[in-house]
Every structure is written in C-alpha cells, then in structure tokens.
Specification:
Strands 3-2-1-4-5-8-7-6 form an eight-stranded mixed sheet, sandwiched between helices. Helices cover about 25% and strands about 25% of the residues. Strand 7 and strand 8 form a beta hairpin. The chain is of the alpha+beta class. The protein is built from five helices and eight strands; from the N terminus they run αβββαβαββββαα.
Length: about 230
C-alpha cells in the first residue's frame, strides 16, 4: 500500500465566537467546494471521522473525543487510528456543529501518518441549510475527497426507498437534490448520504454500500465511534 504524507490541514479561518461569525465563515468557504469532481471509485484507504461527548454533550466546556480510523478500502481492516481529546468551545447550535467538533477532529487528522483517499464523516455535506455541513468543511480544509453519512435527515424531504439493500431515493430541499437516502441493509432504516468535497453523489453512494457489508452504518463510522467513546472512558 502506498504511504503518503500525513493529512495537511489548511489554516483558512480563525475560530468564531458567535453563530453569526460561524455562518459568515461557512458562506465564505462554500465557493471553494468542488462538487462536480468524480470521486474515488475504488479508494485504497478510507477514513471514518466521529466525535463523542462526555455527559449530555451540551454547552461549552464539554469534554469530547475525536477519532479518525483509516481502513483498507478492500478488506476494511484497520490501517491506522488517531484520537484527540479536547473541549467544546463553541455553543450547541444546529447547523454549526462543525465549530464544536472541528478543532479536535483536525488535531486527530494531523496525527495520521498517511492521507486517506476518502474521508467519511458522521454527519452531512451539502445536505445542510447553507450547503456547508461538517463534511464540506473538513473537505475544504484538507483537500481530501469527503462525504457525509447521517443517521437521520437534518433537512429536506424524501420518500422511503425500497426495502432492499441498495435501494435509494433523492433527498430534496427546496426542489434541489442535496443527497440520497440509501438502504444499506434489507428492511433496516436507511442512511442519508451527501457530498462534502471532491466527489460526486453516485460515487459517494457506491462507496457507502461498499463500507456496509454487514451493518447499517459504514464500518468507518462504527470503528471511529467506538474509538472516540473508548477515549472518553479509558
């Protein structure tokens, strides 16, 4: 497997202290998104990103752990792990979760020795009120193809996909397709896939299905969730 330099994180903005400042940063960075680029069809390595909170996770000062787990794109075996523990310094505001989680997530990403071909965030990309969710933010700051996989819909309307694995329906917001509702297991609740950066929706959905051979959620998310929880209790 090719070993490359670690993830390079661009310093594109200061961390905001108010929701208005955070929204302004999202609006400023959104034009940097590459949403029509073909994504990695068969990524050699795929990383899952997830954050766990101590207690109820509300308010500033909450302890949190951010985990990044890199898997082999074919075998789904763990290649590398990185975890960072920090404190939430931004308030709990829907649509602005990135500003609570990104400082610690970026620390975890910087801890990797390799750059994954694809990042999978537990959250949303363009399926976001300002079309700039966590997956978009991570993608712009790292330059790595990134997608978001949500457990529930944050915005938009949709029809339920068929009951079989691989069935999908569009996720719509104001008549615009912002993602896709994907059934990853027969007769199990779907997940919500949206593009973050430097990949297309069709490729993103194929990658999500490749990452869910046994369970509803991608293996990337499952492994990162476990690592972040263990970091808070260990």
């Amino acid at each position: 497997m090719e070993v490359r330099d670690s993830v390079e994180v661009r310093d594109l903005h200061a961390w905001p202290s108010t929701p208005a400042e955070a929204e302004a940063i999202q609006d400023r960075l959104r034009p940097m998104l590459e949403l029509d680029a073909p994504g990695p069809a068969k990524p050699s390595t795929v990383a899952g990103l997830d954050v766990s909170y101590a207690g109820d996770g509300g308010g500033t000062g909450t302890r949190l752990a951010a985990a990044v787990v890199v898997l082999d794109g074919t075998t789904l075996q763990v290649v590398e792990e990185s975890v960072a523990v920090g404190t939430a310094t931004f308030p709990y505001v829907p649509g602005l979760f990135a500003f609570r989680e990104l400082p610690t997530l970026l620390e975890a990403l910087r801890g990797l020795k390799t750059t994954p071909d694809l990042l999978v965030c537990d959250g949303f990309g363009v399926a976001h009120p300002r079309r700039f969710g966590l997956a978009c933010h991570v993608g712009v700051l790292t330059g790595v193809p990134t997608i978001g996989v949500g457990k529930t819909a944050f915005i938009g309307t949709y029809e339920q996909p068929g009951q079989h694995r691989g069935n999908t329906t569009p996720l719509l917001d104001g008549g615009e397709v912002v993602g896709r509702v994907v059934r990853t297991r027969d007769d199990v609740k779907p997940v919500f896939v949206s593009v973050g950066h430097r990949t297309d929706l069709e490729t993103a959905c194929r990658n999500v299905l490749d990452l869910t051979p046994q369970y509803r959620l991608p293996e990337t998310t499952r492994r990162a969730d476990r690592l972040s929880r263990d970091a808070l209790t260990g």
